[in-house]
């Protein structure tokens, strides 16, 4: 059964001059119990899509349903069975951890005790701070509390808008482990993130940019779509190296990737020796090429350049 | 019911955890009621007077003595140069110049008639007006004294004289404070009702907490009631503090039933809270809400009959006061405190304000959206 169905959703906003199309004919669906990632840079339209799916905003055209309910007509039903964690921390900073949790439990007409088993694993980690005000928590703790509050009414679909933005690496990893565990409880999770490395942790991902979907596939599928072998290259002067590579006709694309440059060649790198000598002539003596495994980011770069 | 209870619980928790709001709620009425009525006084005292005396006679001195003996005037200089007096006015050191012409005494005795010249510094219109009125009364008084001294009045006045003896009903000593304090109290209650409620809701928008609330199945009326009730209660608490201060400090005890005031205040707060709610739906940030309510408060206060009498306003301004809830409450406060009016006496005020409450709240509920 499909848990989330999005069909040709469009949304535009009025800007100072004319309008900005935040979402252009977006369509996809999410299976029941899937961990679905929405990957894209800031301003791609992820939050707008989330707001439409959580009934906070009405799309200009197209339709969407969550758990079988239409987001416009049956918004009341959706609000009962959806958990939403906005990108910005949106709990009451001047209420304590426990007060926040019981407040949201009551709004959903339930109690902490009733659904404790669902949030137990997460709540245990912040329980020792339960009398502390939410505003005084660290970033990672805040995210865990927000997740607890979004889960306390046992939602069937969980929408997490950039839950790991601004959270340290360790907390991020912990957070994703929590999501994996939640998935075992048969909760559909739709999560957005600007971090490519998190994409590989999802069952399926949708790459979104400037309001359009570039691709939807499993992380592996997306990585394989690169099609051509990928080379990484290092040299002492990375800037000149990039400039020279880009000017060569054999080079299909070249972009910085961490401490290296990733390069794709038209002829798949068969003439790597010739290229090295060509670079030497231009004064780059220490360029070292290596074959490397593609990541989602590489595919994303390729899709973006299309 | 459970939802409403937790909403109220949360709201009160937040208020009592916010020292700034608590301070405003408890200190503001105290400070305003202690300072404002004492400072914002209608009576003009210490009018700075400069006398230009060209006569230097016994009478002129007597007149000046009589004037300076009152607490209203303060003699800046007693000179014989009009130009010098004018410099005082120019430097804002004098508000009034009284010029006594030469031969003032002689003319008064011989010709039974003398003229005085008065120059007013009209930059402060109120002071100049009231100062000249006081001065005229004193001179008139002086005139009568001179006449009784010099003229042997016939046993019966040849001309009939009408003497007017005023009596001030409801405020026998024309005590300015009895009149002002209830009005200021109204302003305080209005501020809490309109300002705090508007700011509170907009803060939820600004911080983003409303986002989290909006995805819950909570009903619109529950959310709005959860916001209205706490500030309704706070408004009544302020009223209580204010009434206590006006009794303890100024000895003002309402002549009418105190529950009449509370009953009216209860209805009035509904109207004001509706207004605050409306402000919060149209503003996106606390700054906007603040400026908007500030703008409205200014108009409400200035056209509310607190400082200036509504009857002396131009027709269009009077028409506006008809839709100004503050004007109704100030009127009711004065009626109940000074005159001892009952619920039956204020029934029209009550009905009108109730009407405001219905209209404003319906507008607010109608324009509040859980989604965009």
Q: What low-confidence regions of chain A span 5 or more consecutive residues with pLDDT below 50?
A: none
Largest sheet of chain B: 4 strands, mixed
Q: What does the overall shape of chain B look like?
A: elongated
Shape of chain A: elongated
Helices and strands of chain B: which structural class?
alpha/beta
Give the topology string of chain A: H per helix, E per strand.
Answer: EEEHEEHEHHHEHEEEHEHEEHEH
Cα distance, first to last residue of chain B? 27 Å
| Count of folded domains of chain B | 2
Report strand order across the widest sheet of chain B.
2-1-3-4
Oligomeric composition of the shown chains: heterodimer
What proportion of the residues of chain A is helical, as a percent range? 25-40%
Model description:
The complex is a heterodimer of chains A (306) and B (372). With 306 residues, chain A is of the alpha/beta class. Chain A folds into 2 domains: 2-223, Rossmann fold; 226-305, Alpha-Beta Plaits. Helix content of chain A is 34%, strand content 29%. Chain A has helices at residues 46-53, 75-81, 97-107, 116-127, 139-151, 169-184, 219-224, 238-247, 272-281, 296-305, and strands at 2-14, 19-31, 35-39, 61-66, 69-70, 82-85, 157-161, 188-193, 204-209, 212-217, 230-234, 251-257, 260-265, 288-292. In chain A, strands 6-7-8-3-9-10 form a 6-stranded mixed β-sheet, with helices on both faces. In chain A, strands 2-1-4-5 form a 4-stranded antiparallel β-sheet, with helices on one face. In chain A, strands 12-13-11-14 form a 4-stranded antiparallel β-sheet, sandwiched between helices. Chain B has 372 residues and is α/β, with parallel strands linked by helices. Chain B folds into 2 domains: 2-40 and 175-367, no CATH class; 47-150, abc type-2 transporter like domain (abc type-2 transporter like fold), CATH 3.40.1710. Chain B has 14 helices and 4 strands. Chain B is elongated, with a radius of gyration of 28 Å. The model of chain B has no long low-confidence stretch (mean pLDDT 85). Chains A and B meet through helix 2 and helix 3 of A and helix 1 and helix 8 of B.
């Amino acid at each position: 059964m499909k848990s989330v169905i999005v069909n040709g959703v469009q949304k535009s906003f009025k800007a100072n001059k004319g309008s900005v199309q935040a979402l252009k004919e977006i369509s996809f669906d999410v299976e029941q119990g899937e961990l679905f990632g929405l990957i894209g840079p800031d301003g791609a339209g992820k939050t707008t899509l989330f707001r439409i799916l959580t009934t906070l905003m009405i799309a200009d055209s197209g339709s969407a349903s969550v758990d079988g309910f239409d987001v416009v007509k049956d918004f009341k039903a959706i609000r009962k069975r959806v958990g939403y964690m906005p990108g910005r921390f949106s709990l009451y900073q001047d209420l304590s951890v426990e007060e926040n949790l019981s407040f949201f439990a009551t709004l959903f007409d339930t109690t902490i005790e009733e659904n404790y088993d669902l949030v137990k694993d997460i709540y245990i980690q912040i329980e020792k701070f339960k009398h502390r005000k939410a505003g005084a928590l660290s970033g990672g703790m805040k995210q865990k509390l927000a997740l607890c509050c979004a889960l306390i009414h046992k939602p069937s679909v969980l929408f997490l808008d950039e839950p790991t933005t601004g959270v340290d690496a360790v907390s991020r990893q912990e957070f994703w482990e929590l999501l994996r565990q939640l998935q075992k409880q048969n909760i559909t999770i739709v999560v957005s993130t600007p971090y490519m490395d998190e994409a590989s942790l999802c069952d399926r991902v949708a790459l979104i940019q400037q309001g359009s979907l570039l691709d939807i596939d499993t992380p592996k599928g997306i990585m394989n779509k690169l099609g051509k072998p990928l080379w990484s290259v290092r040299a002492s002067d990375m800037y000149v190296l990039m400039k020279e590579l880009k000017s060569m006709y054999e080079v299909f694309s070249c972009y910085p990737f961490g401490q290296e440059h990733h390069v794709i060649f038209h002829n798949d790198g068969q003439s790597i020796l010739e290229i090295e000598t060509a670079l030497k002539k231009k004064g780059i003596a220490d360029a070292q090429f290596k074959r490397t495994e593609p990541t989602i980011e590489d595919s994303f770069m390729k899709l973006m350049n299309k | 019911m459970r939802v409403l209870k937790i909403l109220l619980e949360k709201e009160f928790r937040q208020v009592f955890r916010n020292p700034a709001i608590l301070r405003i709620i408890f200190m503001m009425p105290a400070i305003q009621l202690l300072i404002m009525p004492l400072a914002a006084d209608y009576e003009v005292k210490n009018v700075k007077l400069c006398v230009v005396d060209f006569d230097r006679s016994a009478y002129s001195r007597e007149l000046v003595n009589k004037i300076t003996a009152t607490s209203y005037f303060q003699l800046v200089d007693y000179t014989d140069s009009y130009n010098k007096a004018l410099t005082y006015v120019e430097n804002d050191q004098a508000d009034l110049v009284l010029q006594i012409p030469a031969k003032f005494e002689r003319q008064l005795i011989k010709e039974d008639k003398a003229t005085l010249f008065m120059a007013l510094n009209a930059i402060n219109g109120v002071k100049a007006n009231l100062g000249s009125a006081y001065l005229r009364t004193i001179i008139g008084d002086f005139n009568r004294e001179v006449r009784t001294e010099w003229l042997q009045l016939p046993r019966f006045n040849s001309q009939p004289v009408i003497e007017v003896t005023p009596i001030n009903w409801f405020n026998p000593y024309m005590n300015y404070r009895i009149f002002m304090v209830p009005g200021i109290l109204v302003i305080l209650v209005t501020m809490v009702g309109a300002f705090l409620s508007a700011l509170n809701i907009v803060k939820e928008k600004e911080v983003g907490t409303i986002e989290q609330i909006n995805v819950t199945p909570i009903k619109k009326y529950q959310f709005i009631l959860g916001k209205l009730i706490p500030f309704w209660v706070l408004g009544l608490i302020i009223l209580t503090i204010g009434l206590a201060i006006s009794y303890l400090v100024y000895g003002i005890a309402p002549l009418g039933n105190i529950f009449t005031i509370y009953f009216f205040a209860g209805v009035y707060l509904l109207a004001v809270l509706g207004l605050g709610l409306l402000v919060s739906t149209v503003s996106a940030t606390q700054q906007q809400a603040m400026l908007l309510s500030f703008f409205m408060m200014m108009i409400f206060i200035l056209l509310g009959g607190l400082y200036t009498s509504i009857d002396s306003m131009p027709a269009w301004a009077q028409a506006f006061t008809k839709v100004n809830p503050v004007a109704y409450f100030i009127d009711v406060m004065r009626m109940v405190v000074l005159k001892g009016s009952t619920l039956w006496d204020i029934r029209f005020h009550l009905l009108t304000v109730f009407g405001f409450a219905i209209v404003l709240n319906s507008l607010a509920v109608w324009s509040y959206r859980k989604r965009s």
